[in-house]
TrEMBL record:
It comes from Prevotella jejuni. The keyword Hydrolase applies. Gene3D superfamilies: 3.40.50.450. Keywords: Glycosidase, Hydrolase, Nucleotide metabolism. SUPFAM superfamilies: N-(deoxy)ribosyltransferase-like. Substrate binds at residues 21, 85, 108-110. Its EC number is 3.2.2.-. This is Putative 2'-deoxynucleoside 5'-phosphate N-hydrolase 1.
Length: 139
């Protein structure tokens, strides 16, 4: 049975890793369902939105998290929103798996010290995909 995945990555906090997000999302989508495919889009609209737009995003995304089997995040680029999503998933007992490029980031002690979060530092992007297979049970 296909798993439903909420993929979290920085949007307003910076898009430097969008291409990595896209490749991760495409890889997960080969076997499972990613609710947040838009996170990997290079053309993601970052214009200032209205409060109503943000309310819609909050309501949609929290619903997606609640209905996900797992949350997978790339936290190389710090993001307030991603931090919120991780805590939201944790509060609902949804497994959280966090990737980060250790040559570019030093993750927060709040993430690294949380024994409920699984962290996967990587040096090369190729290291990500076998771990995703293990997380999703595809190996």
């Amino acid at each position: 049975m296909k798993k439903t995945v909420y993929f979290a990555g920085s949007i307003r906090g910076g898009r430097e890793d969008a291409a990595v997000y896209k490749r991760m999302i495409d890889y997960i989508n080969m076997t499972d369902i990613v609710f947040t495919e838009h996170i990997g889009l290079e053309s993601l609209n970052l214009k200032t939105r209205t409060k109503e737009d943000d309310v819609h995003i909050y309501e949609r995304d929290t619903e997606w998290i609640r209905t996900s089997d797992v949350l997978i995040a790339d936290c190389t680029n710090p993001s307030h929103g991603v931090g919120y999503e991780l805590a939201y998933a944790e509060a609902r007992n949804i497994p959280v798996h966090i990737f980060y490029d250790k040559s570019k980031a030093n993750v927060s002690a709040m993430l690294n010290g949380n024994t409920r979060f699984k962290l996967y530092p990587y040096e090369r992007e190729a290291e990500i995909y076998p771990v995703l297979d293990n997380i999703l049970g595809n190996k």
